[in-house]
Amino acid sequence: MQIRLSWPSGHLTASLDDTPTAQALTKALPLASTAHTWGQEVYFDTGVSVPRETNAQEVVEPGTVAFWTDGDALALPYGPTPISRGDECRLASPCNVLGRLNGDPGLLASVRDGDPVRLELVDD
Hints:
The protein is mainly beta. It has one helix and ten strands. The longest helix is centred in the first third of the chain and has 8 residues, at about 20-25.
């Protein structure tokens, strides 16, 4: 499954794995939300509520597409967060891993807190 994230100054696509959380998220698309930033992470509310999966992770690679079950939000880390140790991408709590961004995750640095974001399916 492919999704596209758009914000005023750019866009990225992502490839999602076939997980229960990814399926729940894609059923809710398209969606519009408001971006929040936390260190080098962009996150936004999805209105989707799912349980934490058994393989949830707290430390992930830059460009990981994660779902923060505590906040019903998509979390997109591209570098260290305020609780990271060194250069790692440490999420606020363990998150369901959905897939990976295609392209340079550093493009997320152009997302500003409060930016409108849109998430939609990409037709194959």
